[in-house]
Amino acid sequence: MSSEPEFRPHRVVVLALDGLLPFELGIPHRIFGRPKDARGRHLYEVITCSVRPPGPVETDADFAIQVGHGPEALATADTVIVPASYELGPVFEQGTLTDELRAALALVRPGARLASICTGVYVLAAAGYLDGRPATTHWADAEHFRRTFPQVDLDPDVLFIDDGDVLTSAGVAAGIDLCLHMVRRDHGTAVANEVARRTVVPPHRDGGQAQYIERPVPDLRQATTTTARAWALGRLHEPIQLRDMAAQESMSVRTFTRRFREETGVSPGQWLAQQRVERARHLLESTGLSVDRIARDAGFGAAQSMRQHLQAALGVTPTAYRRTFRVTGREDGSLPQDGSLPEDGTHITTART
Fold this sequence. Notes:
Strand content: 5-15%
Largest sheet: 6 strands, mixed
Helix content: 25-40%
Order of helices and strands: EHEEEEHHEHEHEEEHHHHHHHHHH
């Protein structure tokens, strides 16, 4: 008789509200519908529900969608995701929930993870989930959101914010970044990267929203910093000087630094630190190399430097990060059935990316 616990995929419930954007509604299904364990079993189950009984939900396009679940599905969720809607009414205008939305959210069980895509953050804020906490939304709605919810610590410059049990993302495609981040947090970099490859998107985008506000499309007549970035990624384990990166594009350091920030939203130094943190995360998850060796391979040089960077970026030490994934990631790749954290309380929080 087998003592193996019954397998149950992590249930993601997507709340479809009238006026929703079909693209955003499809993001959770596309990202969470991909990951499987070593036995070929889906690690997530994704369902869509409405605040009303099963039936049609209007979109911002010229078609409606037929939703097969009512609000009672929220009571079964391990993770609840709220995509953007253009018909939030009093939620957007006064920061207050409608009666049916309040009743629906009351069904969410304590301990469930909550996430929003774009202006879906208004729903979480109106429900009080974000009081005194960091959050983000589409840059174009930042000032309105601040006026409506002054109690929320809004950061409009990032693609997403992970505050543990509540996560928020910027506009539209940043929802992909957020969902990939949750897969990475749940099951590690290798699983998230495989989902990204199959979806034909980058597993991790550099910078924040700033790069999209004034220059959404780079001027193709000007030189870019793409070659320099590719050059640096191939030698992260080596010391990399700003002048060496600029030389790859035949630019002065000043011109290169300005162009780099325009394209990525961060400085070359910040970008290098991000890439080295990502390399360290991958090695901590996928190898048994010592912390000292990983620090050298990721380009930090010394273990202490890597500890400081991981602590700043992730809120944990390298040892704690490795232990977290070894504890929460079972051999079959599943998450704890109740969505709980490891017994030692270790938890990964990436507040900024």
